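tool_call: predict_structure(chain=1)
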Amino acid sequence: MARVPNPRVPLHGPPTDLDYFYPLRDLLLIDGGPFGYTRVVEVLRDLTDLGREEAIHLVDATPAPVLVAVFPGIAEWAAARLHEAGGSVQILNSGPRQEQ
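tool_result:
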């Protein structure tokens, strides 16, 4: 089940020490949504310079990065637009990845 965002809490969680050094975020599209992904494709075309075919391929290839190394406000705005269209997204720190 998709997580419903709370507008008062950032989607990326509480600030960490990495936020000071790496303030940029990556936006990943996790799922195109259960109600057809036509609206998600249109929002992707608005957010990026992708054509219709590329946007459809991006939705079919989920999880896939939509925006890479953008400011947190832009990432949260784009995530809200994709959520409204029915997609599931995740915002990650754009800094170095840690092995788990």
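agent: The chain has one domain: 22-93. Proceeding to next step.
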